[in-house]
Amino acid sequence: MSAELVLAIETSCDETAVAVADGLGRPLVNRIASQIKLHAPYGGVVPELASRNHSLDLRPLLDSALSGAGLTPREIGLVAATSGPGLASSLLVGDTLAKAVAVGLGCPFYSINHMEGHLLSPFLHPHRQIDPHVALIVSGGHTLLIKVVAVGDYRLLGSTKDDAAGEAFDKVGKLLGLPYPGGPEIAKLATEGRRDAHAFPRSMVTSGDLNFSFSGLKTSARVLIDRLGAVPRGEELADFCGSFEEAIVDILVFKLIEACRRTGLRLAAISGGVSCNQRLRERLTAATEKAGIELILADPAFSTDNAAMIAFAAASRRLAGYPPSPLDGDINPNLRLA
Ligand code: KG4
Ligand code: ZN
Q1: How far is the CA of 229 from the centre of ligand 1 (A)?
Q2: Distance between CA atoms of 24 and 5, rounded to whole angstroms?
Q3: Whose CA is nearest to atom 11 of ligand 1?
Q4: Distance from the alpha carbon of residue 196 to the mean position of ligand 2, in angstroms
């Protein structure tokens, strides 16, 4: 069994992450060294700071992940790393160390698309079979609707034409003077606010396709702040956040249900950092129940960036018969999923 253990490294953006999983991709240890505090003063991720800290943090994190699982490197049977999309200098740190470990141990190396990690993460815990389904991935950089036929067989149904949902949360959080990342901060404030205090646009719900657009929503947030004459505070801020969050949730719920209707699939899964959003989880649960669709929500622990999802994707690809990746393969900051 030990020869089957998977070691995964994720350094695509600002989280340094290492995980060890069993041959089915079930996590044994999942470690993250977050850089959020480091980038917070800049209101966003600073690429050079991110890569320098990945190289400082990765080696000790790897050691602690292995010792945390009571393992020595010799017990690893497969090494995986995120090869894109993400920040080039950040991706290179994890990719390079993972390849070095694979060479040192003489074991196969799998380069994994970060978005495939998110996509499959709802099936990781509780562990279950990856059946055909509609996947909604809502992360900081992507908003994607994918028809998943099988592991590695993904068809793009829709994507954002401009900003991602997480990006809209973060940019509007910045406009409101909230700490980075804005998503969780807006979500916290929204629980105290009215959902119908402001009529933010529900962009693209009548577009007739499964694409998204969130930049108009961000602009209307800016226009509203200008109209209010100052950044809202107290109750006004809660109302702003409640109404803004509701607009994003409405759009995501509408498009996911529509994607299921169009594909005829009765199983849906949602992943990525924004899928931690409590309001989104509640509204999606109610809407899918009403439509007779089974919904799988990624465990919040595996929704924001982590390496357990990369280990799970690598194990799933291996089990599905995909060959290892070449050791001279490149990273790709713009890697596509479908
Ligand atoms: O998947 P992720 O960790 O990183 C990327 O691959 O981009 O997603 C990060 C995004 C950020 O935009 C963050 O604001 C958002 O997820 N996020 C949330 C919540 N938690 C994280 N957005 C809304 N509500 C939340 N509770
Ligand atoms: Zn991510």
Answers
A1: 29
A2: 9
A3: 140
A4: 30
Q: Ligand 1: which of 114, 137, 246, 274 to mutate, judged by most atoms within 8 Å of the beta carbon?
A: 274
Closest of 259, 275, 260 to residue 309, by C-alpha:
275
User: pLDDT by residue (tens digit) across 77-122?
Assistant: 999 999 999 999 999 999 999 999 999 999 999 999 999 999 999 9
* Residue 173 CB less than 6 A away from ligand 1: no
CA angle (317, 28, 284) in 5-degree steps: 70
Q: In the Cβ-directed half-sphere of 96, how many Cα atoms lie within 13 Å? A: 11
- pTM of this structure: 0.95
Rounded-to-integer distance, Cα 46 and Cα 36, Å = 11
267 and 254 part of one domain: yes
307 and 293 in a common domain: no
Q: How confident is the model at residue 69 (pLDDT cuts 50, 70, 90)?
A: confident
159 lies in some domain: yes
Identity (one letter) of the amino acid at 202? R
